[in-house]
């Protein structure tokens, strides 16, 4: 079994909770409250600004031109394809681009992005990939699973979201990242593999927290 498969298998209980979350299920059956989705899109846009930076850091840390080029492609596709989905949704919700970009991050968004950026900036390339992989992988899996539901990808509001994350392009980029993690993990000492596993676990948990944050539209608990 590959390193990534081992992590994936071990963390299945959390991954299944992500799929079962009422937010995800609500996208799938089309019943999600559009206010919750609106909140999610704004927070996810802020998330993606920092997530894209991880790909830029990946390009800096890459050891060969092929890997560097792939990170450039990931940066481009995040900023110009995935984030343009969010910009289209913002239009539907009457949110201006300025409002979108300058929105206030929720505590979970802030914690998640800062954790990933810290792991990506201070760690090895393998650590960076371990931090960003659960995000791509779980969205691709969720999109693909929801796309199997008859009519889900034609839903007036949520259809495009499902089509984006189940697309062959997103799947191909995800698979490339999975392969890269396995390549980088090869021959690493157990202590380094444990570190990779820990990072992968943390961002997997953050994925759940992000769904939950959006479902409850959770900002700071102090209201000021
Ligand atoms: C929180 C989160 N995780 C993963 C993705 C997929 O890129 C996303 N857009 N947002």
Automatic annotation (TrEMBL):
<comment type="pathway">
    <text>Cofactor biosynthesis; thiamine diphosphate biosynthesis.</text>
</comment>
<dbReference type="InterPro" id="IPR027574">
    <property type="entry name" value="Thiaminase_II"/>
</dbReference>
<comment type="function">
    <text>Catalyzes an amino-pyrimidine hydrolysis reaction at the C5' of the pyrimidine moiety of thiamine compounds, a reaction that is part of a thiamine salvage pathway. Thus, catalyzes the conversion of 4-amino-5-aminomethyl-2-methylpyrimidine to 4-amino-5-hydroxymethyl-2-methylpyrimidine (HMP).</text>
</comment>
<comment type="similarity">
    <text>Belongs to the TenA family.</text>
</comment>
<dbReference type="InterPro" id="IPR050967">
    <property type="entry name" value="Thiamine_Salvage_TenA"/>
</dbReference>
<dbReference type="InterPro" id="IPR026285">
    <property type="entry name" value="TenA_E"/>
</dbReference>
<dbReference type="InterPro" id="IPR004305">
    <property type="entry name" value="Thiaminase-2/PQQC"/>
</dbReference>
<feature type="domain" description="Thiaminase-2/PQQC">
    <location>
        <begin position="9"/>
        <end position="216"/>
    </location>
</feature>
<dbReference type="InterPro" id="IPR016084">
    <property type="entry name" value="Haem_Oase-like_multi-hlx"/>
</dbReference>
<comment type="subunit">
    <text>Homotetramer.</text>
</comment>
<protein>
    <recommendedName>
        <fullName>Aminopyrimidine aminohydrolase</fullName>
        <ecNumber>3.5.99.2</ecNumber>
    </recommendedName>
</protein>
<keyword id="KW-0378">Hydrolase</keyword>
<dbReference type="Pfam" id="PF03070">
    <property type="entry name" value="TENA_THI-4"/>
</dbReference>
<keyword id="KW-0784">Thiamine biosynthesis</keyword>
């Amino acid at each position: 079994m590959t390193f990534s498969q081992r992590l994936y298998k071990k963390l299945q209980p959390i991954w299944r909770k992500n799929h079962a979350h009422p937010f995800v299920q609500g996208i799938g059956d089309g019943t999600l409250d559009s206010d919750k989705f609106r909140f999610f899109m704004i927070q996810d846009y802020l998330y993606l600004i920092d997530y894209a930076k991880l790909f830029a850091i990946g390009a800096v840390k890459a050891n060969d031109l092929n890997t560097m080029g792939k990170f450039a492609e990931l940066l481009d596709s995040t900023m110009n394809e995935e984030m343009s989905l969010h910009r289209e949704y913002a239009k539907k919700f009457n949110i201006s681009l300025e409002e979108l970009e300058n929105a206030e991050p929720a505590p979970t968004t802030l914690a998640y992005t800062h954790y990933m950026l810290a792991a990506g900036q201070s760690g090895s390339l393998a650590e960076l990939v371990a931090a960003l992989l659960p995000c791509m992988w779980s969205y691709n899996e969720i999109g693909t699973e929801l796309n199997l539901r008859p009519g889900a990808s034609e839903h007036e509001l949520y259809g495009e979201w499902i089509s984006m994350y189940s697309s062959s392009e997103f799947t191909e980029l995800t698979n490339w990242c999975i392969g890269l993690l396995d390549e980088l993990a090869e021959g690493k000492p157990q202590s380094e593999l444990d570190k990779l596993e820990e990072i992968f676990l943390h961002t997997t948990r953050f994925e759940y927290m992000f769904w939950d944050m959006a479902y409850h539209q959770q900002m700071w608990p102090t209201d000021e």
